Structure formats: C-alpha cells, structure tokens
Amino acid sequence: MGCDGRVSGLLRRNLQPTLTYWSVFFSFGLCIAFLGPTLLDLRCQTHSSLPQISWVFFSQQLCLLLGSALGGVFKRTLAQSLWALFTSSLAISLVFAVIPFCRDVKVLASVMALAGLAMGCIDTVANMQLVRIYQKDSAIFLQVLHFFVGFGALLSPLIADPFLSDANCLPANNTANATSGSHLFHAARVLGQHRTEAWPWSNQTLPGPPLQDGAGTHVAYAFWIMALINLPVPLAVLFLLSKEHLLTCCPQRRPLLLSADELALETQPPEKEDTSSLPPKFQQHRGHEDLFSCCQRKNFKGAPYSFFAIHITAALVLFMTDGMTGAYSAFVYSYAVEKPLSVGHKVAGYLPSLFWGFITLGRLISIPISSRMKPATMVFINVVSGLLSLL
Fold it and tell me: Which segments cross the bilayer (predicted)?
C-alpha cells in the first residue's frame, strides 16, 4: 500500500506532463500504422511499382533509427526535451497534410524520412522523461505509454479504410474485370522486382496508360483527418511549455516538474540500497557532458556481467519483435489483396487494425501484470508465444 500511495502521489503531482508524454506517443502510433493499408493507393498516386513504393518504408524506418539516436541530444534540459517533442509532433501533422500532394515516389520517401526522424525523437525523449520522473516506479507508466502507441496504430487504419480504393490502378477506359486487374498488378510486381534490383529509383512504372487524375483523391481525406486528429498533441506540448514557463515570452521561473535530485529524494525508500556491486557511475544518475560520453570505457569498468547481459538481451528482443511488428503491419494489407488470398480492399484494410488492436489489448493487460510478474518471465512467455504464432 505504501508503494501504491507513493506512485499515485507522484502521478497526481506530475499528471499534466505524464498525460502529455502519453499523448505524444499517440502521434507515434498514428504515424507508424497508416502506410500499410494506404500502400496501394500511394503507389497509384505516385505512379510507381510496388518495389519502388516499398522504399518508402525503408526511408521511414531508417530515419526512425537515426531520430532515436538524435533524440538523445535533447536530454540535457527539460526545455530541450519539450521543444523537441513539440517540433516532432507538429511535424507529424504536417507530414499527414503534405502526403496527398506527393506525386513522386522520391518526394514521398523524403517526406516519410522526416516523419521517421520525428517518430524516433518522440520515442527516445518521451521514454526518457517518464523514466526521469518516476525512476524505479516507471514500469507501469511506460506500459501505458506504449499502450497509446497501439491505440494510435489501431485508429490510423480505421480512419484510412473508408477512403481506400476498391480496385488497383486501372485506366478509366479499361473494361477488364477485377480478376484481370489483379493479374495485371501481380505481373507488374513480379516484373518490377527484377527490373529495379539494380537501382530503386529507376523510371520503370506500371504497364498500361497512366492513372487518371482523380483516382488518388479519396485517400487524401484520410490523411487530412489524421492531421487534424493529431493537431491537439503539439498544442498539449505547447501548453506544458507554457505551464513550465519555458516559452521565450514568459518569465523564467522554477519548473513545476521535480528535478532529478528532488525525484531521488522523493522515491528513495527508507532503507538504503546496496549498490556496492556497481561502479560509481551506475550508482546515481548524472548528465553526460556530450553525446558519446556514456560510451567511454571508464564508465563500464567494474560493471557486473549481468549489466551487459541485460542490455544485450533487451536489444536482441527488440530487434526480433519490435522490428517485425512494424514490417508485418505494413505488408499484411498488400499481401492479403494479392493471390492466392485475393481479399477485397475494404476487408483487407481492417487487418492492420485487427493486428494493432490485439497489440493494444496485450499492452493494456500487461499494465497490471507488470507489477506482479518479473520482466524476464514476461519476456520469455511473449517471445515463445510470438514464435508459435509465426510458425
């Protein structure tokens, strides 16, 4: 009861920043899941082949990786972190608004690269700020944080589904039925895989007449709706900046959030913990002087082997699971509409939502479980279950 009372007290004291960080991760989820069901419409919009449009995924994920590393630069002060979150969440709304105007696959890939940078920055900064606020009690709050990722990813395909095209890219005067259109798309994909291996930005396009001008306008409404839905998120971050008196037009005052030292005193239990097995660098949190100072050899001298084992294992688990999650949700739609499944476009649009819906449900269930079960046990059960599902 004492632990629950302390955690609830910390939540009440930091309710506004906590809700803001959770909402920012909603933007992350909204942006990570929309490419899957809209892939074929974007392919039609950019007059590109499926192998070409697939490079849009690569640009987003590569820049997400770079953005995650870049987010560590903004960790020194609260002002830097909040301004980074404001810029990133606002950039996601701008990306949604601009995507319908991208008529070239290279331009679309560049826009998605910007979205990836924003997502990576959000991923690093929001996680770091919640850990800084709640420290040893941050597990439950991080679970809720990632629940909002799933919620945004669940909502994104549902918004896009009513605006998806019912057929593949076919000219207006084409009288072929849906089956022949599917054969045309399948043949173009097979040929495109061989013709674009040397260079992804070749001028190869789909066979047949170009797409009519009005064919790609319906999905644009989905992107503009998502841009409006995401717009309150940067406004919430801006409001937090105002409450913390970090706007340039406001006088500088003491931030409402607890500092790291105050948090340490607030969350420290009565009995002193035994940290003699750790080197001094690991006994307390200290800011790094530069971006790569944490990688210096002296910081790891004398660290127990379990320290490295935990970090390596966590990295491998994320590499195997989190990366495959994004790839699966992105390509399950285009896989379903092709032979041998040949699922209807509208029905296939619900597959990413179904997938992310159960991810969201799993993250919601894991919130109370994480307070009663060891992390190693949870990871083992989840990895084994995931492997069985893939098999």
Answer: 21-40, 52-74, 81-101, 107-126, 138-160, 219-241, 307-335, 347-365
